[in-house]
Write a structure and sequence with these properties.
The protein contains 11 helices and 7 strands. By secondary structure, it is of the alpha/beta class. The protein has a single domain (about 10-275), classed as 3-Layer(aba) Sandwich (Rossmann fold). Strand 4 (about 160-165), helix 8 (about 175-185) and strand 5 form a beta-alpha-beta unit. Helix 1 packs across helix 4.
Length: about 280
């Protein structure tokens, strides 16, 4: 991300969410506010063929990870959790759609200061108002801890909480990622959903070429991929942090669960849920 500028990859993710509403009929993740907050033509934001196989696969993964996170959140609310932290929120619209507002769910949006300022401007321009209980907490994950960023926002680290952290970890250092996961693991009955990619060494043939092209694309935006994980090693690391329940959705699980399609063998993006009972 360029200094002082909002995240361009966050804008692209919002374009994918908007296109999922129109091209896919919101079949996996319904977010009618996605096109509204984006404000621009999502096809123009992405450039080129917005429904090419590669773009379609990314759009479907973004829809699936959002659905995965919000389904897990709903289950957490049913258990009594009343704090939801959206890390790296970008143009996420949950704070405006909050279906659990009547239950008293507080929403804490955490993001880089420049991206959050841009998001708040977009909310005002689009005439969107977050539901009661939404709080904005600007944090630069590479320079501040999550604890510092939430401290003044009213978050109670002594009470259970659910965290979503989508589309962020590839752009951070391993140290910053585990500093944040360590904080989350210290919250009572903590639960987090995040996503990650696998290292380039896991890819072969055409898949390796496609991955290299995607990496070059985000690097050209000034937001290069920095960190990837091998799923078995990540699971061990999460257990070492104290998480006791881990669910990992990779290419083999996402298709059958959300798209009535066979699972795909081989590496790809993963959505992970980790909970500390």
């Amino acid at each position: 991300m360029q200094a002082g500028q909002p995240s361009l990859t966050a804008r692209r993710a919002a374009a994918h969410r908007a296109l999922h509403q129109s091209l896919d009929g919101a079949r996996v993740f319904a977010d009618p506010l996605a096109p509204v907050i984006l404000g621009d033509d999502p096809v123009a934001v992405l450039g080129g063929d917005a429904d090419s196989p590669g773009r379609r696969g990314m759009r479907w993964f973004i829809a699936a990870r959002s659905r995965f996170a919000e389904d897990a959140l709903a289950a957490a609310v049913a258990r009594g959790v009343r704090q939801y932290v959206v890390l790296g929120a970008g143009l996420d619209t949950f704070a405006c759609r909050n279906p659990h507002a009547a239950d008293g769910l507080a929403v804490f949006e955490v993001d880089h200061p420049a991206t959050q300022a841009w998001k708040r401007a977009r909310l005002a321009e689009a005439g969107l108002t977050p539901a009661a209980g939404a709080v904005f907490a600007p944090v630069d994950f590479e320079r501040q801890t999550l604890a510092e960023g939430l401290a003044g926002a009213g978050f109670d680290a002594a009470r259970p909480a659910f965290f979503s952290w989508l589309g962020v970890t590839p752009y951070l250092t391993r140290e910053a990622i585990f500093q944040t996961l360590g904080f989350i693991a210290g919250v009572p009955a903590a639960e987090v959903v995040f996503d990650h990619g696998e290292p380039s060494s896991a890819y072969r043939g055409e898949a390796a070429v496609a991955r290299q092209a995607r990496a070059a694309g985000v690097a050209a935006l000034g937001e290069p991929w920095i960190t990837h994980f091998e799923p078995p090693a990540l699971r061990r690391d999460l257990l070492a942090l104290g998480f006791t329940e881990i669910e990992d959705l990779g290419p083999g699980q996402i298709g059958p669960r959300y798209f009535d399609r066979p699972g795909r063998d081989g590496p790809g993006p993963h959505a992970v849920r980790a909970r500390r009972a």
